[in-house]
Amino acid sequence: MRKKLLRIAGILFIALVLAACQDSADEDARSEEEAAATEEETAEDTEVTEEEDHEHDHESEENIEAGDAEIEGFNAHYHTGDTVNLTASTVADEGDGHWHWYVRGGDEGEWEEADGGDGDTFQSEAVNHQQIKATLYDEDHEVISETEPVTVIIDDHDGDVYEGYFDDEDVEDRDISDWAGEWKSVYPYFEEGALDEVYEHRAEESDDMSFEEYKEYYDTGYATDVDNIEITEDGEFTFHEGDETYSGTYAYDGYEILEYEAGNRGVRFIFELEEGDEKPPQNIQFSDHIIAPQKSSHFHIYWGDDRDELLEEVDHWPTYYPVEWSEEQIVDDLLLH
Predict the structure, then answer these.
(1) pLDDT, tens only, 266-282
(2) CA distance 63 to 66
(3) Model's pTM, two decimal places?
(4) Among candidates 187, 184, 258, which has minimal Cα distance to 221?
(5) Residues 6 or more apart from 276 whose CB is under 8 A from it?
(6) 3-state class of 116 per DSSP?
(7) Cα dihedral: 32, 38, 41, 47 (round 10)
(8) Cβ partners under 8 Å of residue 106, min gap 6
(9) Distance, first Cα to last Cα, the chain
(10) For residues 71 and 147, is the Cβ–Cβ distance under 8 A?
(11) Which of 81, 82, 65, 64 is nearest to 73 (CA)?
(12) 251 CA to centre of own chain
C-alpha cells in the first residue's frame, strides 16, 4: 500500500513539474510575441514619424525664415498664355541639397507643392496673382534656404487705367522700389529696325497714321543717349551714357495727374535730386500706366532741371525695359500696347 501511495505521489510530482515547465514555456512564448509586436509597433511608429517629418518639412511653413536664396528669370508682368520660367539659386547650396517649388493663390492661400518644379528650375503657365517660391532641403529634409515669394501679374494692357481712364481717388503714392532694378533703353532696338513689326501692326489698325509716321513719332519719343539705368531701393540712380557713368540719389516728391488732348489722363510720379554727381538731372518723372503701388514692367521717363517744364513735355519720353528682357519679349509687349 505504501509503495502504491509513493508511486501516486511521484506521478503527481512529475505532473506538477511538467505543468510548471509548460506554463513557463507559454509565458516565454508570450513574452517573445509581445516583444516582437512591440518592436514592430516601434518600427511602424518610427516610419510614420519619419514620413510625417518628411511631409512636415516639405510643407514650406510660413514661419521658415527666407535665406539668401533667389529666384531668377521672373518678369514684372506676363501676358495671358505666357510661360513662367524660373531658376532658384543660393550660395548656401554645397551640392547635396534638393529643391522643392511651392505655389499658392495669393497672400491668404495655402502653400502647395508645385507640379512644374524640376530641381532648381520651374516652368508653368502664368496664373494671375499666383505666388511662387522655392525651398532648398538637405538630405535630412531640413531647410537650408528659402526664396522670397514672387507674385505673377498678368497684364494684357487692355484695362481702363492703362488707357488713361481712372478716378482721382484711385491714384496713390508710390515708392521708388516700384522701379528698382536694372533697365535698358529700347532706342537701340528702334535704330536697328527690330521694332518695325510693331509700327507695321499699328499702321494696319490705324486710320490716321502710316508706318513712316509711326516711325517718326517713336524716333522722337524714344531718343536718348542713356542706354542703361540702375535704380536701387534707396533711390540711387546710376546712368550709363556711352562710356560715361554718373549717379545721384533722389527722393519722392509726389505725383501730378495730367489731362491730355485726347480726353484721357496720365500720372507722373516725381523724384527730386538730393545729392550726386554734377550731371544727373534735378527732376525725374516716371510714367508707366500704373497709378498705385505696383512693380513696374517698363516705364517712360522724363528728366530735366525744371519740374513744371517737364510736366508740359509730351513728345519725348525715353522708354526702358528690364535689362534681362529679350528682344522678342519687348516686341511682344509693345504689340499689346
Answers:
(1) 999 999 999 999 999 99
(2) 9
(3) 0.62
(4) 187
(5) 237, 246, 247, 248, 249
(6) coil
(7) -100
(8) 129, 130, 131
(9) 124
(10) yes
(11) 82
(12) 27
